[in-house]
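Researcher: Before we compare anything, I want clean individual predictions. No alignment, no superposition, just each chain on its own. First chain goes here; please echo the sequence and then give the structure tokens.
Model: Echoing the first chain and its structure:
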Amino acid sequence: MLEFPRWKYVLVTLVILVALLFALPNMFGEDPALQVERKNREPMDDFARQTIEELLHKQQITIERDYIDNGRLVFAFNDVAAQLKARDTVDATLADVDRAALSTASRAPAWMRRLGLKAMPLGLDLRGGLYLLYQVDVNGAVSQLLESYEQSFRRSLTEAKLTFSDIAPINSGASGNADGLRITLPAQSDAAAVVEALRKVDNSLNFRSVSGPAVEMVLTPAQIKAREDYALEQNRTTLMNRVNELGVSEPIVQRQGLDRINVQLPGVQNSAEVKDLLGKVATLEFRLVDTQDSPVQAEESGHAPLGAKLYKRKDGSSILLKREVVVTGDELTQATSTTTNEGPAVSIKLDARGAESMQRTTRLNVGKPLAVVYIEKSRRLVEVDGKSVERETNTETVINVATIRGVFGPQFDVTGLMAAEARDLSLLLRSGSLAAPVDVVEERAIGPSLGQENIDKGVRALELGMLAVFVFMALYYHAFGLVADLVLLANVVLLTALLSLLRASLSLPGIAGIILTVGIAVDANVLIYERIREELRNGVSPQAAIRAGFDKAFSAIADSNVTALISGLALWVIGTGAIRGFAIVLTLGIATSMFTSLMGSRALISLLYGGRRKVLRLSIG
């Protein structure tokens, strides 16, 4: 007598029904869509939806359907041309308050959307978009930290009314990179007082007095490592902020390896503009103008006076600025592009520290000129010994010089920019500065037509592979083969449901993982069926052969699946990119194949041959 507990029937039935529900949205396909959200992150409402609907209708853009999803408006269209026209219309009319992003919208019924049922997201190779792999210059991160300390040291010594000759980077090790600062002091200076003032900047730093007289600060290996780790995480956060400002739907920005960050931007095709904006290191500095010395003499001699630095204006003329920085871009809390009577501008709001520094400086220097320096760091190819070598270059341009007429508050406007410069600069300042320079080491742009072609080929390969397996199992194992076919189909449904539930992106390697999962599930059924055949050849009754086949094949199935699961988990944890996508599908597929092969298959065979019915022969080939 072959029995299967009723609660297991109920469990298998519930699991399959729930899986069907979660997998169902994948059957409806997607339409080109536009996501619109407020720049201030406030949720959209029906009034905003009606406003944009009227705007698009005036441009004769047909909206297939629209709805509000997680505070964002989603407009679906029949084709990509209407989608692009709608984006350009929203950007041209509502760019000051709204942000539009190209996206896709499922054709699934509204009740599925209300239940939170969504199709699994597609990777770039299936959806189309831009893939960028950035290399983070961790040595540059330490250099930027030293520059920050240099400005803080200058400010602290000035506030303490302690004189110093210069502050310059030093290299105390064999790495060839700067890892400390030397503060050169005038003769008969009180080095102890200087160290005490410098410790107020950061008490964890190590200072030592040396001959010269001078004071040196050298970073420890632990501090350098901490800065490198911080730079990687800060760069990832900054890149994510910049991507969000660009209005890209469902982006992926994640660390890869020790010093790399990969960025995946679905639907983005203008790679040159996006690369320039994401990798740009740009900020502002406010410095007082040196009115005591001549910039012409400094330019002719090639040396700036002590405590001053030579800069260029936008028109190419020279100007001397004091080395002490009043406020940097890191002390901004808000930056928005705007238009004033003087033209395009960036409206800036300072944090408490920056506001205090600006108020103190302007109060003590009324009637004196204050300059705004625009700093942009980039990498360019230069010729060295006849070879092209990539070097980091700094472009520092004075974009505005104004006379201080009164005490500045925490909020003011910076002019002297073109409209595009003001827009890009406000975006960069809002998203934060990169803690270290980054370089693009790999780039792939995948068009939507190629993505659709990849989908068609991947699905066709899956269909052909499953069809071949189905036919073989039906011919070789007869009724038991048909049971295996139903189990394999259930396995694919379960796997699709899990990918949709976990919001795991499906890529071409993922489709390969699904096909491999089908093979793993078939292998389990083959082991069970061959064990049943062996029992029948030994003269065991049909029902006893089924029971023995499942029981005795379990250890072999478990061993093979556990070893495959270990490999899959290792690839999932350690791997990146396509390898990790494959590992996710493989790992989940192993779990679903174990369930369907051992539970689902046994439930169906028990329905066919179980109970008190008398079975004389099994249709197993």
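Researcher: Okay. Second chain, same rules.
Model: Second chain and its structure:
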Amino acid sequence: MPPKKTSKKRKYGSTAQKKVRRAMHERKQGTLKSGRSGKKVKSRKQAIAIGLSEARKSGAKVPKKKSS
């Protein structure tokens, strides 16, 4: 019996991917700054978070932020 094909819905839209890609590129170049303090971002996770935050503001398809 062949395996079933399941259709998976995308979590992130293409606009969100572009924003994260741009943020990661800026981090590598050393030009990505944090929003409030204006310090240089060095962490990979911070760069992704900044990209997703910008995507949310622009209305791209991004899952809601997890509340703690």
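Researcher: What stands out in the second chain?
Model: The two ends are 44 Å apart (CA to CA). Additionally, The chain has a mean pLDDT of 90.
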